[in-house]
Specification:
mainly beta; 8-stranded antiparallel β-barrel; 8 strands
């Protein structure tokens, strides 16, 4: 009986830990794309794994002319986020709609992920939902 109780407690704790993780697939605000957030060393990155506009949409707004012919699906848009308390900060987010890269931070609020891109004191925060 003790083993069953210990097993159930461990199973519940692992479920809580997963629920608090940002690693996984997220549907962006407006449902335009899906981003898979993954860990690389002590940093978090994220790449587009699905795009409503289709798999063949090119990164035509990229300021680097060499990258304008690459597909958006498979491209990293989140890079270098580091955990600091309840947030992930110090990273960058790339917006393929306008070809610009912004400083980025993100945090969990319940079952949603708040993703903030900013320049100086100006920012925009999106709400992403777990897929």
């Amino acid at each position: 009986m003790k083993k069953v109780i210990v097993f159930l407690m461990l199973a519940m704790m692992s479920g809580v830990a997963h629920a608090q993780s940002v690693i996984g697939k997220w549907l962006t605000e407006g449902g335009e794309s899906q981003v898979e957030i993954y860990q690389s060393g002590d940093k978090l990155n994220g790449k587009i794994v699905w795009l409503k506009a289709g798999d063949n949409k090119l990164d035509s707004k990229n300021p680097d002319k060499k990258l304008q012919s690459r597909k958006i699906v498979g491209s990293n848009i989140l890079t270098g986020l580091t955990k600091k308390g309840d947030k992930w900060e110090g990273g960058k987010i790339y917006n393929p709609k306008n070809g610009k890269t912004y400083k980025c931070s993100m945090w969990l609020e319940g079952n949603t992920l708040k993703v903030r891109g900013y320049v100086a004191m100006f920012y925009e925060t999106q709400t992403w939902t777990r897929k």
